[in-house]
Write a structure and sequence with these properties.
4-stranded antiparallel beta sheet, single chain, elongated, mainly beta, about 120 residues
Length: about 120
């Protein structure tokens, strides 16, 4: 069984910063892609940033230059540093990972963490 546990969300003023963390735990053989998605009210879930293959990263155009994804492979943890936050960044942020376990390779999601950008 694999769990993705997110932390770091909250309320921040426009222009502020937050750092999200997502730790994967369980019977993990290997972590392939790992990253962050978000879903705002009334909108579809969208990619924010992810490690897609090895060190290769992919960012949504709307966050380029403001958000940075990083990871600690030893801890199976991925981080999202969010700077210069805007009200339109308000959403539930979900961690996603493509993980190989003893039962096979599968796609996993965290429970989500709320990020609210408001004055």
């Amino acid at each position: 069984q694999v769990q993705l546990v997110e932390s770091g969300g909250g309320l921040v003023q426009p222009g502020g910063s937050l750092r999200l963390s997502c730790a994967a735990s369980g019977n993990i053989f290997s972590v392939y892609a790992m990253g962050w998605y978000r879903q705002a009210p009334g909108k579809q879930r969208e990619l924010v940033a992810a490690f897609t293959r090895g060190p290769t990263t992919n960012y949504a155009d709307s966050v380029k230059g403001r958000f940075t994804i990083s990871r600690d492979n030893a801890k199976s943890t991925v981080y999202l540093q969010m700077n210069s936050l805007k009200p339109e960044d308000t959403a539930v942020y979900y961690c996603n990972a493509d993980i190989l376990t003893s039962t096979g390779r599968d796609d996993y999601w965290g429970q989500g963490t709320q990020v609210t950008v408001s004055s």
